Amino acid sequence: MFLSSFSALAFTIIVSSSRFFANALSSCNGACRTLNDCSGQLICINGKYNDDPDVGTHICSGSGGGSPPSPPSSCQQSGTLTCQGKSYPKYSCSPPVTSETKAKLTNNDFREGGDGEGPSECDGNNSKPIVALSTGWYNGGSRCGKMINIRASNRKSLMATVVDECDSMRGCDKEHTGQPPCKNNIIDGSDAVWTALGLNKDLGVVDVTWFMP
Questions:
Q1: Which is a Pfam family this sequence falls into (predicted)?
Q2: Contact 92, 136 (CB under 8 A)
Q3: 97: number of CA atoms within 13 Å, CB side?
Q4: For the segment 51-106, what is each residue's pLDDT rounded down to a tens digit?
Q5: H helix intervals, 91-154
Q6: Pairing verdict, β 206-211 and 101-107
Q7: What are phi and psi of 68, to 5 degrees?
Q8: What DSSP designation does 151 have?
């Protein structure tokens, strides 16, 4: 009789515990302890259920489950700018700079009257490896004259000098030769940058990484 009661009690505890975790599995940001607490849809990150990046789920950050707060380092859009009937996002920030910051390399003519109305703020010699950075990375001009290391997917790299801003807040005017605001992850490079990296500038945009040495 005693054994029977003990078994029933143990069964009740196990079932209750299972129900608790079953309910928690469907609750984004709910408390969890280990990876094994979660199903294949969610994963335990910092003690809370969240989307599993390996599975690629969007239960917590997409539809359903609510969206978790953005990380402090994220860069949010700062409104839009309408240019010739089309809206473009504006950014006062850029992704955080790391030892391998992802960016999009574009091509720019830095001479006066080139891709901008006036000459570059620091240097406008296209024969040199010079670049303009998106507003957030340009950081109010604090990086003007500084060197950055750029690496292409073909494993070639070079040191380039920051000479101007690729404006992510303004555009579509005479000063910007009618061009819309830059995206917030742009390195606008001279012909010399593309040549040194062994890239075809006719591609228009290529993926690169960069860091401050």
A1: KWL1
A2: yes
A3: 18
A4: 655 444 455 655 444 434 334 457 888 888 888 788 888 899 999 999 999 999 99
A5: 135-138
A6: antiparallel
A7: -70, 155
A8: E
Quote the CA–CA distance of 101 and 194 in Å, as a whole number: 18
Token pair in block for residue 96: 């955080």
Q: Are strands 186-189 and 101-107 parallel, antiparallel or unpaired?
A: parallel
Tally of residues, the chain: 213
Q: What is the DSSP letter of 136?
A: H
Query: What are the start-end ranges of the E strands in the chain?
Result: 42-45, 48-51, 80-83, 86-89, 101-107, 130-134, 147-152, 157-166, 186-189, 206-211
Predicted model pTM: 0.61
* Whether the Cβ atoms of residue 192 and residue 145 lie closer than 8 Å to each other: no
Q: pLDDT per residue over 127-186, tens digit each?
A: 899 999 999 999 999 999 999 999 999 999 999 999 999 999 987 777 666 678 899 999
Block residue for tokens 């975790």: 21
